[in-house]
Amino acid sequence: GQPPKGKKRGGPPLGPWWKPGAKKKKKKNLPRRARWTPSAEPNLTFTIATLAGKDEEPWFSEAVATNLVDKATLDAAFSRATSKSQDFLEAEPYWDQSTIPVNTYKTKSPFIGKVTSVKRIVGENATGETCHIVIDHQGKMPYWEGQSYGVIPPGTNPKNGKPHSVRLYSIASTRYGDDMTGNTGSLCVRRAVYWDPEMGAEDPAKKGICSNFLCDATPGTELTMTGPSGKVMLIPEENPETDLIMVATGTGIAPYRGFIRRLFTENTPAAAAYKGQAWLFLGVANSDSLLYDDEFSTVLKNYPENFKYDLALSREQTNAKGGKMYIQDKMEEYADEIFAKLDSGAHIYFCGLKGMMPGIQSMLESVAAKKKIDYEQWMKKLKGNKQWHVEVY
Ligand code: FAD
User: Fold this and answer.
1) Around 187, how many Cα atoms within 13 Å sit in the side-chain half-sphere?
2) Where does the record place the FAD-binding FR-type domain (predicted)?
3) Which of 170, 212, 233, 259 best tests ligand 1's pocket when mutated (most atoms within 8 Å of CB)?
4) Which residues, at least 6 apart from 13, have a Cβ–Cβ distance to it below 8 Å?
């Protein structure tokens, strides 16, 4: 089925209410409720319990009697939810990168953020555990899409008795955060574990300190943070026609989630202006390990001309030679298009584990050789034009 007609660029993503073929439910004859408008009552404060009716649900007033919602909070929520454009965190003009925040907080003067939520986002048969973590920064630690936050895990390093060192995590939300308030930032963190081949089991004594701390965090957990840092992975927004090729393995998807939300699902000036094509290549082990697939599939449905989404599932798909489908194999299938796009000024991004680069580079080199292109010169030109962006760890 097709999404409902009349959807404009930059509008909110389709919600779970929309299903192909779903029919509107008929309204039952329910009594009409008064509509709440932000300015109807100047000093409105109410308890949910009074509205619910104490007699119908005797337990209810007890449960929520102290839950006071003042009018200012309701007003703010209302205007946030209904405001037409999302532009309160934009530069002037929006693509100008000269005011980008860098290292606002450092190891010696860190920011204390608070975890809002931690959610496992991979299926049962995923290889390892990956969590989406939303952090409240109260609007005090603004960042741009493509930057990273640093997290200093609590405790000391037993090797030297000093506090643990900072670990970097690519930010997986746009500058507005997942809730559009500009007060949060999200991370996509894979729990690092150590597999002991001799024991044939995980050794908990050697598990990754910071990633486990983050994946085990609960709402309210305080985080000692640095950053935001990095300018390598920014979107070149000055020319909204620029094609982007985004290559990720695993948590390397994080910055691109921010890019894709900014270019397609938010109501920002960047989304309104974007006329290029954004092409995502994601490599993971199997379909249970996919990350943010629902979000990307929705964007693909809504913007089939401007968004492309290709997957390499190494344990489920086979490449042209019958081997495992790695990210470079999927890219090779489209090598002609990729080379043509890069020749016309596309920017290419790589993010994920360091180990992804050698395979990709030798694939590109062999394609270049077939095309009689001098690989070194070709690469030099891309780097010189700032079209080549790498953040691997
Ligand atoms: P550490 O405690 O630092 O341990 C590192 C590894 O060593 C672990 O795998 C651990 O199991 C193993 N180990 C521990 N003890 C032993 C031992 N005795 N012998 C052998 N092995 C041992 N990660 C993400 O998940 N998401 C991101 O978006 C992300 N973005 C990044 C962006 C940048 C720019 C960089 C540089 C890194 C990024 N990382 C990201 C990686 C992240 O910074 C951490 O390196 C990662 O989470 C592991 O840190 P840790 O503290 O959990 O592990």
Assistant:
1) 29
2) 108-235
3) 170
4) 265, 295, 298, 299, 302
Q: Calculate mean pLDDT across residues 103-115.
A: 98
Atom of ligand 1 nearest to the CA of 190: 25
Task: Specify the ligand 1 atom closest to the Cα of 214.
Answer: 52
Q: How far apart are CA 60 and CA 50, in angstroms?
A: 10
Strand segments, DSSP code E, in 161-267 are 167-170, 184-190, 195-196, 201-202, 222-229, 244-249
| Confidence at 24, pLDDT banded by 50, 70, 90 | very low
| Domain architecture of the chain: domains with CATH | 100-229 (2.40.30.10), 244-392 (3.40.50.80)
- Nearest atom in ligand 1 to the alpha carbon of residue 168 is 43
* CA nearest ligand 1 atom 1, residue: 208
Dihedral class, residue 179 (left if φ above 0, else alpha if ψ from -120 to 50, else beta): alpha
**Is residue 375 among the annotated active site residues?**
no
Indicate the pLDDT class of residue 73, thresholds 50, 70 and 90. Answer: confident
Give the pLDDT score at 85.
75
Q: Are 254 and 170 in contact (CB under 8 A)?
A: yes
Whether 349 is a known active-site residue: answer no
Distance (Å, whole) CA 107 – CA 82: 39
Annotated binding site for NADP(+): which residue ranges?
170, 190, 251, 314-315, 324, 352-353, 391
Q: How far is the CA of 385 from the centre of ligand 1 (A)?
A: 32
Residue that has been written with the tokens 């986002």 in this structure: 121
Does the pLDDT of residue 12 top 50, yes or no?
A: no
Residue closest by Cα to atom 16 of ligand 1: 206
- Provide the token pair at 281: 């290549």
- 241 three-state secondary structure: coil
Q: What digits encode the pLDDT tens for the residues 298-310?
A: 999 999 999 999 9
Is 170 an active-site residue?
Answer: yes
